Amino acid sequence: TAQRDAVLAEAAAEQQQLADTNGQLESVQNELAAAEGNAAALDRAYAEQQRQAAQEQSKQDRINGIRIAGSDNAVALAQLDVDAVRERIEAVRAKMNAPYLYAQKSGIVLAVGYTAGMEAAPDKPVASIGDPDGIYAMLQVAQADIGDIEEGQIVEFSFDAYPERVFTGVVTKKLPMPVEGSNPVVYVVHASLDMEGEPLLAGMTCNAQFIIKQVKDVLRLSNKAIRMADGKQVVLMKDDGGALYEQPITTGFSDGRTSEVLEGLSDGDIVYVEG
Fold first, then answer.
1. Domain count, the chain
2. Is residue 122 one of the residues assigned to a domain?
């Protein structure tokens, strides 16, 4: 019995040792699984870190490229500024070596702002030049007549400076608003001028006649020679014996001073005006 108890006790001890061993094995296996999990997590973290590092490097490369390009542009712009300054310096030197001013286009000198020895100022021009192609007459027309004025209408001008000349032009603009404070009311009309070689200057005064209606290649007669007799228009002529007689005529268009003769007279006929 004592031997049997000893065997049982030894078997129980071995079973306990086996149970402890199994427990240790399970604990080791759990530790191994945890370690493997940690290793996988570390691998993933490392891979993510590498990916982020690659992205950051790519961004940095692009930033560096932008910085380099920006620097190149800044250098190019600065060079342009330098070139512009050099051009201005050369222009000033050229003027110092040849102190003459040249207008950028042809024209008529309207005013000179300086005399010899005066100091030039930036806000005061040396000379004012007018464009000869842009010269026009500014005319004032009474409101009773403005309705007869249209763009494209022919205008005849007479200037005090050239009393024997008649200049022509064309209406280019009719301003819709009257001259402020005018009484009676007048409107401003612009008309071009054909100078025909004469030096018309700014500020010259003129008389203008608007051609409302015009006929060409007609026989015309002074209205002073036309009289009325029995409701008909007649002129005085002489027969072969030198006696005056009334010759009926038919007139057409009139400008108030002369009239178009349609019938009753021929070119070269002589008519008489009673004094």
1. 3
2. no
pTM of the predicted model over 0.90: no
- Containing 155, the helix (H) or strand (E) segment is strand 154-159
Query: 189-209, pLDDT tens digit by residue?
Result: 999 888 776 677 778 889 998
Helix (H, G, I), strand (E, B) or coil at 213: coil
Which residues span the domain enclosing 83? 1-99
Express each pLDDT in 101-135 by its tens digit: 778 777 777 778 888 888 888 888 888 887 766 67
CA atoms within 13 A on the CB side of 17: 6
Are residues 201 and 144 part of one domain?
yes
| Token pair belonging to 134 | 């842009």
Give domain status of residue 46, yes or no. Answer: yes
| Cα gap 174→141, rounded to integer Å | 10
Does one domain contain both 193 and 232? no
User: What distance in Å separates the CA atoms of residue 146 and residue 148, rounded to the nearest whole number?
Assistant: 5
Pairing of strands 127-130, 220-222: unpaired
